[in-house]
Design goal:
Helix content: 55-70%
Order of helices and strands: HHEEHHHHH
Number of helices: 7
Number of strands: 2
Strand order of the largest sheet: 1-2
Low-confidence stretches: none
Radius of gyration: 19 Å
């Protein structure tokens, strides 16, 4: 076999980053090479996610393809990744959608093409991280980081004059949902604590 199947998630995370580094080395005026490079790395990531699906053993009731890297040992923070049956399909869908987005926008994006392609590959990296990371702090970091390329994509390449308003709406709506979730989770925690009295 040409790759180690145990490290396939590591490869899925690294491929968009290599794509971003490759795009940074290409001059901004060379639009065709920029598009081909981004599409190449996006398609490789999608093909690798298909292999992740093929090699996934649905009979096991645990996380698969796990790997752990000790990050801050004193705080017990680790970079732990793995997939289960749900996150597998989210990763597959993410890589398919990013590939299709780059393919559909092949002839339409003319301004800031390099930033556009980097934003999509960065979005792909963060989304794959969201769906495969098993550490709560890193999940939060990846989850919040998804907003950065999404905000850029909506703000710069959105539809007509409404794009700025849509970007602000997206940004504030997501944070409003997070604040509500935080309040509800604290309320549930307080209610579930037996020693707490009103």
């Amino acid at each position: 076999m040409f790759i180690n199947t145990q490290n396939i998630i590591n490869y899925l995370l690294i491929l968009p980053l290599f794509g971003i580094l490759s795009l940074l080395l290409i001059p901004s005026w060379n639009h065709l090479l920029l598009k081909k490079t981004a599409l190449l790395f996006s398609s490789l990531t999608f093909i690798l996610s298909i292999f992740l699906w093929i090699w996934f053993n649905a009979a096991l009731g645990q996380f698969q393809y796990t790997s752990k890297l000790i990050w801050i040992s004193s705080l017990n923070l680790n970079f732990t990744i793995g997939v289960d049956g749900i996150s597998l399909f989210f990763i597959l869908l993410t890589t398919l959608l990013i590939f299709l987005c780059l393919l559909v926008s092949w002839g339409t994006i003319k301004q800031n093409l390099k930033l556009y392609l980097i934003s999509f590959l960065l979005l792909e990296f963060f989304l794959i991280g969201v769906f495969c990371v098993l550490d709560l702090l890193l999940f939060y970091i990846f989850f919040e980081s998804v907003l950065i390329p999404m905000y850029l994509i909506i703000g710069f390449w959105g539809s007509r004059e409404r794009k700025i308003r849509a970007a602000y709406f997206f940004f504030f709506f997501v944070y409003f949902i997070r604040i509500c979730t935080n309040v509800i989770s604290r309320f549930v925690y307080i209610l579930s604590n037996r020693n707490y009295r009103f």
